[in-house]
């Protein structure tokens, strides 16, 4: 869903399992640039020498990670909006948030 390239990149190993009732927010140490249309977000994580680029659906999920919505609420919203099976959406959003945790982009509340 996104890329993080560069020789300075250090992936943080997260042993946290993303549960459906979990709530997440952005790491306070991020540098973030957003496009005016909201379809692209460029993030500079504290542990990555290169930017992480989120586009389209990944950017939309990013905007839903707001310290308010649970993973389940985000999944239901996207399943409804795009007409996709909720089980598939749950799994994909859990995996995406797990990647964000590993890159130190999000934190669990």
From TrEMBL:
<protein>
    <recommendedName>
        <fullName>PqqD family protein</fullName>
    </recommendedName>
</protein>
<dbReference type="InterPro" id="IPR008792">
    <property type="entry name" value="PQQD"/>
</dbReference>
<dbReference type="InterPro" id="IPR041881">
    <property type="entry name" value="PqqD_sf"/>
</dbReference>
<dbReference type="Pfam" id="PF05402">
    <property type="entry name" value="PqqD"/>
</dbReference>
């Amino acid at each position: 869903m996104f890329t993080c390239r560069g020789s300075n990149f250090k992936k943080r190993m997260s042993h946290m399992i993303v549960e459906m009732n979990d709530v997440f927010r952005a790491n306070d140490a991020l540098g973030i640039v957003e496009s005016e249309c909201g379809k692209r977000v460029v993030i500079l994580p504290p542990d990555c020498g290169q930017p992480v680029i989120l586009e389209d659906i990944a950017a939309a999920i990013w905007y839903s990670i707001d310290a308010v919505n649970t993973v389940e609420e985000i999944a239901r919203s996207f399943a409804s909006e795009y007409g996709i099976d909720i089980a598939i959406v749950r799994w994909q959003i859990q995996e995406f948030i797990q990647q964000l945790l590993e890159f130190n982009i999000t934190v669990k509340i």
